[in-house]
Amino acid sequence: MDIFLYILSNNIAPMFLLIIVGFLLGRFRKMDVKTLSATIINVLIPGNIIVRLYKADFDISLLKTLIYSLVFIALCAGLGFVISKLRRFSPKKTAVFIESQMFYNSGNFGLPLIILVFSNAPFIVNGEAIYLDYAVAAQTIVMSVQSLLTASGCYAMNGSGNGSFKDAVKRGLKLPIIYVIPLVFLMKAIPYDFTGFFLWPSAEFACDALVAVSLVTVGIQFSNSKLKNFGVDSLLSNLARLVVCPVIAFFLIKLFGISGLLAQVLLISSSVPTALMVALISVECDCESDYVAQTVLSCMLICPITLSVVVYLARILFPIV
């Protein structure tokens, strides 16, 4: 119980304090969420990727993360499809329910969570977070897959302005993260220490700002949402996303033979709430937007408890030797 409370107070509570600050800020001040989101996507996340990925030591286990992420998304989609059929949802509601399982908040929420978890005890050795860069590198791969598929997949499933899948894919290909990752690999291949480059501090500034700005932005986004009575379907989506999906992730991690630090990262990452982007795109596409907003908001409200449990279990199930 002491460890559980420690995780809740030291990893989860700091995140939700910033979310609450953002919520209050959004209530009392007029904030441009789109500008903040664009800043996160185009500046802060790329800066974080450059710093964390460049410093991380890669091995073959990280390459498994890419395949794992694709298989995990497919299994979550299957889960959403089965539940939708059992509940006899309409085609539109089926689409958004599947999306609520497939696409989780791996960037604005998942990445800060990983950073907080692996930059605190018991992952500190001699005052240094020795596992942090590797953990962030793994989460970055998950985030890259999620970012591309969320941007293109949601538009394709919900139907964009002209219903063109080609246009939906183009939206995904405009994300800077898709190009920053190959750039970092190129930088690592060049026999030069880029941390000594005079512009390197710019990337570090962006990296350091990511956690606070992302979580405050999440709060501001929620301040614009209308809190209603959550229906059974919203709560069912939350149960599947926060409980069933991590169970699927556990067995998939075992199947892939992943252990230790990487296994912890992937299990924790699998348990974060539904992506806010799903709600934003549903509004733009006029596809069950009220239901999606309720689902995303209720998922965020429930997740502090489930996340604390998963972080605790990750340490027990996949100890770092």
Give an overview in words:
The protein has 321 residues and is an all-alpha fold. The chain has a single domain (2-317), classed as Na+/H+ antiporter like fold, CATH 1.20.1530.20. The chain is 78% helix and 0% strand. It has 13 helices and no strands. The protein has helices at 2-28, 33-55, 60-87, 91-102, 106-117, 132-158, 165-173, 177-189, 200-223, 232-256, 260-270, 276-285, 289-317. α5 runs antiparallel to α6. The longest helix is centred in the last third of the chain and has 29 residues, at 289-317. The two termini are 23 Å apart.
Summarize the structure.
The chain is mainly α.
Task: Pick out its properties.
globular; 13 helices; mainly alpha; Na+/H+ antiporter like fold
Give a topology summary.
Blueprint: H1 2-28, H2 33-55, H3 60-87, H4 91-102, H5 106-117, H6 132-158, H7 165-173, H8 177-189, H9 200-223, H10 232-256, H11 260-270, H12 276-285, H13 289-317
Helix pairs in contact: 1-5, 1-9, 1-13, 2-6, 2-8, 2-9, 3-4, 3-6, 3-10, 4-6, 4-10, 4-13, 5-6, 5-9, 6-7, 6-11, 6-12, 10-11, 10-13, 11-13, 12-13
Low-confidence stretches: none
β-strand amount: under 5%
Major sheet size, sense and barrel closure: none
E-strand count: 0
Tell me which CATH architecture applies here. Up-down Bundle
